[in-house]
Amino acid sequence: ASRWCASVILLFSFLTTMCSIFFFCLLPFLTYPLLHTLIAMVLFSLVHNQSFIARPTTVYAALQRPCLISATTTATTITTTIATTIATTITTTIATTIATTITTT
């Protein structure tokens, strides 16, 4: 069970990070908790071969499990770190470009 939990956490973190980068760039109005919940629902339905639309109660119960809660926490940390890094890089690049342009002119 612990091996399954670890693989779910890794997969969940990876998928959330990829999707978060995608949504961070294209759809900033989406909140991260909503994104995490949607991905968790899709993952759960794939793993258990159940439709989360047909059985929302089962999915909600599964989302309360410590395994998925820790996966969400891990994914949030990774997402925040990557988003901050991207934002810092973009800001630094723009600031450097502006400073260089002003200095040259």
Structure report:
The protein has 105 residues and is mainly alpha-helical. It has one domain (2-104). It is 85% helix and 0% strand. It is built from four helices and no strands. It has helices at residues 2-26, 32-48, 56-63, 66-104. The longest helix has 39 residues, at 66-104. The model has no long low-confidence stretch (mean pLDDT 67). The chain crosses the membrane at residues 29-47. Keywords: Membrane, Transmembrane, Transmembrane helix.
Termini separation (Å)? 64 Å
Mean pLDDT: 67
Secondary structure: number of strands: 0
What composes the largest sheet? Answer: none
Tally of contiguous helical segments: 4
Which structural class is indicated by helix and strand composition?
A: mainly alpha
Report low-confidence residues grouped into runs of 5 or more: none
- Work out the helicity level: over 70%
Relative strand content: under 5%
Work out the radius of gyration: 18 Å
Number of domains: 1
Q: How would the blueprint of this fold be written?
A:
Elements: H1 2-26, H2 32-48, H3 56-63, H4 66-104
Helix pairs in contact: 1-2, 1-4, 2-3, 2-4
Keywords: Membrane, Transmembrane, Transmembrane helix
Transmembrane segments: 29-47
Which key features would you list for this structure?
105 residues; mainly alpha; transmembrane helix; transmembrane; membrane
